[in-house]
Fold this sequence. Notes:
The chain has two domains: about 5-205, Rossmann fold, CATH 3.40.50.300; about 215-255, no CATH class. The protein is built from twelve helices and five strands. The protein has helices spanning about 15-25, 40-50, 55-65, 90-100, 115-130, 135-140, 150-155, 155-165, 175-180, 185-195, 215-225, 245-255; strands at about 5, 30, 75, 105-110, 170-175. The longest helix has 15 residues, at about 115-130.
Amino acid sequence: MKEIYFHIGFHKTGTTWLQQKVFLNTDHFNLLNDHIKPWNDKLISYLVTSHPSDFQSDTLLQIIKPRIKKNKINIVSAERLSGHPYSAGFDTEAIAEKIYKTFPKAKIIIVSRDKKSFIYSSYKQLVKRGYPGNFTNYVNSHNWFFPTHTKFYFEHKNTINLYKDIFGTSNILNLEFQCFQKSKNEFLNSISRFLQIEISIEENDQSTFINKTYSNRRIRSIRFLNKFRKTEFNRFPLIELNKKTITILSRVFSYFYTNKKLNHDFS
């Protein structure tokens, strides 16, 4: 099979921009998975949800083979492959091993960011998705039954070193989110050198394509209303409000909350 590339995230590191502006908007690439709803994509779902003891390389190959295109850079791009901020990457190593078992010569692209901004941004995103806990709950949670947060995952270098150990340093491209923010051209040039092709995008596509950041007061308002929203974080709300109602109420309630910085005084 042709060489396969994997872009595995992390979360909140310009993944959507890369998918929309580069992997789907240039002649070089063939994006192998659904980037809008990756959880519904059979390829990503199998990599993430299959138990390591049940995982079969042949099954993954059967899913991927019909999607391969000749004379294209075939790439899988999903930030969930790096783990997940809510469960602190409890399955990061298992997913890496599944990829290696099927594609031992795969080349991996990882975009990382500094620990504090990663945690802060991830928390906001989780609240938007339905997480009802405050920032301290998020950072310091320790659960007996469920995967919980560890500072090991928050340090991106640990996952990067894991992939280097498995695939070899020469097959890993680690980019910094700060570079993405500072210079899209420099960011793309690094990918070009790694892939040994010339990547360019239209000048009007240079804008940062990232999910909108809400104010701290809006996040606090949504967090409160998440108690009445059915999500993976809260499966059995006492009273259930629909998403549209939550959105409207969060705008109104936000005026009653402070816009002070969320507490992220951690070491």
